[in-house]
Structures are given as structure tokens and as C-alpha cells.
Write a structure and sequence with these properties.
The protein is an alpha/beta fold. The protein contains eight helices and seven strands. Strand 4, helix 5 and strand 5 form a beta-alpha-beta unit. It is globular and about 45 Å long.
Length: about 240
């Protein structure tokens, strides 16, 4: 996977991504809804539905951001949900959301990332990642560490943008992501690079079958994917035996 970063400087990808999300945190939820026309909510619901039969008690939400995925996971009625993110700015908005929804006792947000988080082995029944694996500094290292802390029999569910292959969705998607998204992003956020980095990182990400192969190589079993909304995103599920 090419090392696409938000800024052209010497900081690590992790540092750059954290700075980028801190910069756009105050507009993130608004722009997310505007640019996706709200369909991201349905995608998350599909991911959480994958976990219903598992009845997970302990859930980890990686790259939790403003905690939308963690909030959706609360419908599974677990004992505890922990959300981790490298952007403290994003989590500040997430904590405000949790207080308003009276979910702050169930859901706890902590600073951390997939590669270095040091929970003990076999800690979580389920792990979810929403639009975060593209931003891992070391993709395989992050996935292997998540495998370590996932309980045997547990599930990893990942929601991530993908790149459509078919006409005319591919052409529309390319135009929208390359021109409309950065333009709207510049208008409403104070970081002109953030919404240019988005399409660049999506294009560089090894999606669909390639990502399933990476999951298998990291030790997961029964890895699979399902394209959503004509291929503009994908839902991945992988198990630990």
C-alpha cells in the first residue's frame, strides 16, 4: 500500500492524520453527513447487524472519531464499549455526544491506535473499524495487534471506502471525490488538504479481494467482503478461531 499522507512534511503518517482530524473535528459530523448524503448511517447499521448473533459483551471501536460507530454498537446491549482514536479533538466532540445520549457510562473513549494499543490478549468479543484502516501507519501491524486482542470466536468488522469498478458509478465517483469533495471540504473546514487526502487514500487502499487476502495473511479466518452502494464502500468481516 503506497504511503499516502495528508501533508508533505517529515512527520509520521500517524502524526499527520492526528493533526488533520484535530483540524477538521469541529466540522467533521456536518461534512460527513453532507458529503455522503447520510448513507454512511445505513452502512454502519449493516455492520452492527453482522454482530447481533455474536451477542458481544466487550466491544472495541478503533478510529472511533466522534463515536458514531460506538453509539450504533450500543444497540447490541454489551457490557462495555471502548473507543480509541489518535485525534483527541475528534473524541472531545464524541464525549459531548455520549453525555447527551446518556451513553457515557457504557462507552469510554481513549487515546490510542491499532498498532500500539496494549490491551491484554483476548480482550474483546468484537472489534469494529469505521473508515479507519486506510489511515493505519502500518496496516499489517495494526491488523495483527487487533487479532491478538480479539477473543477466539470473536469477529472483526470493518467499514471502509472502496473504489467502484463499473461504469458509470466509477466515473461519477472519481469526479465527485476528486472535485466536489475537496471543494466543499475547503469551504467548510479550515484544513484544505483533509478532503484532498480522502480520495488519494481511498485510491491507494488495497480494497475488496486484496484486503481480504491481507486479513487472511494476518491470521483471520473466514474473511469476506460485501460491496455497498454500488461499490463506493465495502464491509469486511473476519473471524478469530
Amino acid at each position: 500500500m503506497p504511503n499516502v499522507t495528508p501533508y508533505n512534511n517529515t512527520d509520521s503518517k500517524k502524526e499527520q492524520v492526528a493533526k488533520m482530524f484535530d483540524n477538521i473535528a469541529f466540522r467533521y459530523d456536518f461534512l460527513n453527513g453532507l458529503l455522503s448524503l447520510g448513507i454512511h448511517k445505513g452502512w454502519r447499521k449493516k455492520c452492527v447487524a453482522k454482530l447481533i448473533s455474536l451477542q458481544p459483551k466487550q466491544i472495541l471501536d478503533v478510529a472511533t472519531g466522534t463515536a458514531d460507530f460506538a453509539i450504533e454498537c450500543a444497540k447490541l446491549k454489551p457490557q462495555k464499549i471502548i473507543g480509541i482514536d489518535i485525534s483527541e479533538g475528534m473524541m472531545q466532540f464524541g464525549r459531548e455526544k455520549l453525555k447527551k445520549l446518556k451513553l457515557d457510562n457504557l462507552i469510554e473513549l481513549k487515546q490510542g491506535d491499532a498498532e500500539t494499543i496494549d490491551f491484554v490478549d483476548n480482550s474483546f468479543d468484537a472489534i469494529v473499524v469505521g473508515f479507519g484502516v486506510r489511515n493505519f501507519e502500518n496496516l499489517e501491524k495494526g491488523l495483527k495487534n487487533l487479532f491478538r486482542i480479539l477473543k477466539p470466536g470473536g469477529s472483526l468488522v470493518i467499514l471502509e471506502f472502496s473504489y467502484p469498478r463499473k461504469f458509470p458509478v466509477k466515473q461519477f465517483y472519481t469526479f465527485y471525490f476528486s472535485f466536489v469533495t475537496p471543494t466543499i471540504g475547503k469551504l467548510f473546514s479550515k484544513d484544505s488538504r483533509a478532503y484532498s487526502y480522502l480520495p488519494e487514500s481511498v485510491k491507494a487502499f488495497p480494497d475488496n479481494e486484496k484486503f481480504v487476502e491481507i486479513l487472511n495473511n494476518c491470521g483471520y479466518k473466514n474473511s469476506n467482503f460485501k460491496s455497498l452502494s454500488f461499490g463506493i464502500s465495502a464491509m469486511y468481516e473476519a473471524k478469530k478461531q
